[in-house]
Amino acid sequence: MASSSLLHAMAGYLLLLLLLHLSFLTNNPSAKHGHSPHHRRHRSHSHSPTSNVGLRQAYIALQAWKRVIYSDPLNFIANWVGTDVCSYSGIYCTASPHDPKIQVVAGIDLNSADIAGFLPDELGLLTDLALIHLNSNRFCGIIPQSIENLTLLYELDLSNNRFVGPFPSPVLSLPMLNYLDLRYNEFEGPLPPQLFQKKLDAIFVNNNRFTNSVPAVLSGSTASVVVIANNNFQGCLPPSIANFADTLEELLITNTNLTGCLPPEVGYLYKLRVLDVSRNDILGPIPYSLAGLAHLEILNLGHNRLTGVVPQGVCILPNLGNLTVSYNYFCEEEGICMNMTARGGIKYDDRRNCLPEKPLQRSEQECNAVLEHPVDCFLQKCVQGVASGTGFLGSPTPPPPAFASAPAPMAAAATPLLSPTLAPSHT
Ligand SMILES: *[C@@H]1O[C@H](CO)[C@@H](O)[C@H](O)[C@H]1NC(C)=O
Ligand SMILES: *[C@@H]1O[C@H](CO)[C@@H](O)[C@H](O)[C@H]1NC(C)=O
Ligand SMILES: *[C@@H]1O[C@H](CO)[C@@H](O)[C@H](O)[C@H]1NC(C)=O
Ligand SMILES: *[C@@H]1O[C@H](CO)[C@@H](O)[C@H](O)[C@H]1NC(C)=O
């Protein structure tokens, strides 16, 4: 059956992925000039490119690519000459999934090559590619539509480049795609809802210029990690976030201009280990449902406009090692939350709230300005990812208070918004 032969082929491809990862573990970055022995491991001698249609296509594609590479300071692609494409630096060949006697180009790995250039349309000729790693280069322009031709593509890492344009929708039609990493580029416009319906293991789109709201339809997602931080989404977190419940372990939405209340459905994400919604404009109370997140290790709610009580149910979560509620407008800590040293084993930050008994709080004036306008989350429904019209009791959401009496936020704002998950990957 076709599916079993495809499975067989993919097993070979996964082996190739493994080889790639291993070779990168042992590869010294300072020696990455394309002369290390592993680059030639898959050189084909039995099949000259002229007798192999795929390699001939690959030759056309890679030469077209070379013509739109304008800077290669490490001479990474200096050996992209001649028809033996399997000997090119960063190009990996293996047996064809359709015919094990034929070599095909299955992987491209130009990570950290510092190359500047474009992606040519001819990339669509490399139809046997299983992985493309272009992390940390200076590629710019748009992702060519022809990438939809790469029906075996399993990993696509374009992170830390200068790609622009709308979300590259051709990737949505790639049936094998499992890992998509677009972080640290200049992509703009909305995220398509279909992104969250693909069978992806990880969705990294942080540090771009994506706008509009978090799509309200999030059904069918399989991702365990969703990082959409440092974009300009605005809107609110839709209750449909609950559709991630069976897989989601890390959700990072810091610094995305999110507003509205946190939906109680966040508490349905029972596998969550990391939840970071810090540095947004989120209103209202902490939903009590968060007390059900038994696996939660890191919870960061800092730098929002949350009000009300820090609930004891959250403070006693068994695996919680770091709880940040600072820079909000909480006016009470329930039970053990008042003295987390008594709980022990946890890093707790409750500075800059409106907690009467605690040091380093906001001024009464600052607190009153916000607490005089209670938020009703029942009226504040999140419809299609957009907070339903009303900010503060029917009036449009006012800008955050000016922090005139608080010098500290400047220092905090200057700290880099990087965590290991946010930083460019090193796949
Ligand atoms: C897509 O792949 C086929 C070969 O499978 C090739 O003939 C065609 O030109 C490719 N399309 C693009 C746009 O590269
Ligand atoms: C949030 O919105 C403000 C005002 O529109 C804008 O200046 C800021 O860059 C936005 N933040 C992000 C992370 O895009
Ligand atoms: C706890 O989380 C905060 C906010 O993410 C971070 O700044 C801090 O370094 C973390 N502390 C520890 C001990 O991990
Ligand atoms: C907090 O708990 C610790 C340990 O139980 C205790 O030593 C300390 O006095 C308590 N602090 C306050 C303010 O109650």
Provide structural commentary.
- By secondary structure, the protein is an alpha/beta fold.
- The chain folds into two domains: 1-181, Leucine-rich repeat, LRR (right-handed beta-alpha superhelix); 184-427, Alpha-Beta Horseshoe (Leucine-rich repeat, LRR (right-handed beta-alpha superhelix)).
- It is built from six helices and 23 strands.
- The strands form five sheets. It has a twelve-stranded mixed beta sheet with strand order 2-3-5-7-9-11-13-14-15-17-19-21, sandwiched between helices. A four-stranded mixed beta sheet has the order 1-4-6-8.
- A hairpin with a 7-residue loop joins strand 2 and strand 3.
- The longest helix has 25 residues, at 2-26.
- The chain is elongated and about 80 Å long.
- The model is unreliable at 1-5, 22-47 and 389-420 (pLDDT under 50).
- The chain binds 2-acetamido-2-deoxy-beta-D-glucopyranose (NAG) (4 copies).
- One 2-acetamido-2-deoxy-beta-D-glucopyranose (NAG) is lined by residues 339, 341-342.
| Rg over alpha carbons | 25 Å
Topology-level CATH name of the largest domain = Leucine-rich repeat, LRR (right-handed beta-alpha superhelix)
Biggest sheet overview: 12 strands, mixed
CATH superfamily annotation of the largest domain: Ribonuclease Inhibitor
Strand tally is: 23
- Domains (count): 2
Bound ligands, each once: 2-acetamido-2-deoxy-beta-D-glucopyranose
Average pLDDT: 81
Which CATH architecture of the largest domain would you pick? Alpha-Beta Horseshoe
